[in-house]
């Protein structure tokens, strides 16, 4: 064991949400992801494919420009929201610990990540449509990086748009309350975090500390009003049903891939009649190559999830036989 591993093992790691509350939070995130996919498929992908098909038939410079803008919006636009959802998945499932004035977060068996709580980059974000019912301890990405970074979408659209807005929001770092239920972290954890922030030499951190201190008071009052409950396990065992759901979540993406290939094939069939120009040729290559590439990636991911389902099924059968 390395010195870093020993240092991490000596910390008091805490999970929030824990037990069944984490299941509820993950279901909340699954619903948001499903809603995002349905909105992208119905409001972005299908109209974009119709516009691409029309642009291929229009041809010329106008058709090429229309094709370029539509492809960027349809295929690259969802990258940032999906990355944001991935960040939420991590925030819901990782453990945290405070050592001195450094907040450490750890996801699974990965190395812990440290954030200085006295660097003047900490904000407390209130609940809202982006965060559900969660209060979030966030890190101002623009201040931490020393300047305002551009969105990934902004970088892709830079040749097309005259002005690209910089991101100045605080990135999610630590959940202070459950995004699904609004339940606050343990009052002692919040008080410990507030004490560290209030001792910072930076005013921004002290303001965040006072907010966390107010939340700790609310958490103490809420804990006094609830009856004692049986403690729930920190780690809930995975089973066949969660693995089956992970396989099922891959299937809607297959529908989007098949629709993309179908539209590309229809443009190719029209082009083989002798109609169309270079724009139609480009549209066919973009749609078919994108569809085949995404299809190959989807197959690998589907087999990975299917292997997890088979492994969980074998483990469940072995447990039943041992009884």
Itemize the secondary structure elements and their pairings.
Elements: H1 3-10, E1 14-15, H2 20-58, H3 60-76, H4 79-93, E2 95-99, E3 102-106, E4 113-116, E5 122-125, E6 136-140, H5 141-145, H6 152-157, E7 170-175, H7 187-198, H8 203-225, H9 240-248, H10 251-271, H11 278-322
Helix pairs in contact: 2-3, 2-4, 2-10, 2-11, 7-8, 9-11, 10-11
Transmembrane segments: 34-56, 62-83, 251-270, 282-304
Keywords: Membrane, Transmembrane, Transmembrane helix
Task: Explain this structure.
The chain is built from eleven helices and seven strands. The chain has 323 residues and is α+β, with helices and mostly antiparallel strands. It has two domains: 3-36 and 77-225, no CATH class; 240-322. It has a four-stranded antiparallel β-sheet, with no helix packed on it. The longest helix is centred in the last third of the chain and has 45 residues, at 278-322. 23% of the residues are buried. Mean pLDDT is 78; it is low at 144-170 and 227-237. The chain crosses the membrane at residues 34-56, 62-83, 251-270, 282-304. Keywords: Membrane, Transmembrane, Transmembrane helix.
């Amino acid at each position: 064991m390395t010195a870093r591993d020993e240092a991490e093992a000596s910390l008091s790691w805490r999970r929030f949400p824990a037990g069944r509350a984490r299941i509820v939070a993950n279901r909340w995130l699954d619903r948001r992801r499903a809603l995002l996919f349905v909105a992208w498929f119905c409001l972005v992908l299908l109209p974009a494919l119709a516009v691409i098909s029309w642009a291929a038939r229009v041809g010329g410079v106008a058709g090429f420009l229309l094709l370029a803008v539509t492809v960027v919006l349809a295929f690259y636009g969802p990258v940032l929201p999906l990355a944001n959802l991935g960040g939420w998945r991590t925030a819901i499932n990782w453990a945290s610990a405070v050592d001195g004035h450094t907040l450490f977060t750890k996801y699974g068996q990965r190395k812990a990540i440290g954030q200085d709580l006295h660097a003047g980059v900490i904000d407390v974000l209130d609940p809202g449509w982006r965060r559900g019912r969660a209060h979030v301890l966030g890190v101002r990405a623009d201040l931490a990086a020393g300047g305002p970074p551009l969105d990934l979408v902004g970088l892709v659209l830079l040749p097309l748009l005259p002005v690209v807005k910089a991101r100045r929001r605080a990135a999610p770092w630590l959940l202070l309350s459950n995004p699904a239920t609004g339940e606050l972290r343990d009052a002692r954890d919040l008080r410990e975090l507030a004490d560290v922030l209030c001792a910072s030499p930076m005013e921004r951190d002290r303001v965040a500390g006072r907010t966390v201190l107010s939340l700790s008071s609310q958490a103490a009052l809420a804990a006094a009003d609830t009856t004692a409950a049986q403690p729930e396990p920190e780690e809930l065992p995975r089973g066949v049903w969660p693995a089956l759901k992970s396989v099922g979540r891959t299937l809607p993406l297959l529908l989007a891939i098949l629709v993309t290939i179908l539209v590309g094939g229809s443009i190719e069939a029209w082009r083989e009649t002798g109609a169309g120009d270079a724009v139609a040729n480009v549209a066919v290559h973009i749609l078919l190559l994108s569809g085949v590439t995404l299809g190959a990636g989807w197959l690998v991911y589907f087999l990975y999830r299917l292997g997890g389902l088979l492994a969980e099924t074998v483990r469940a059968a072995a447990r039943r036989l041992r009884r």
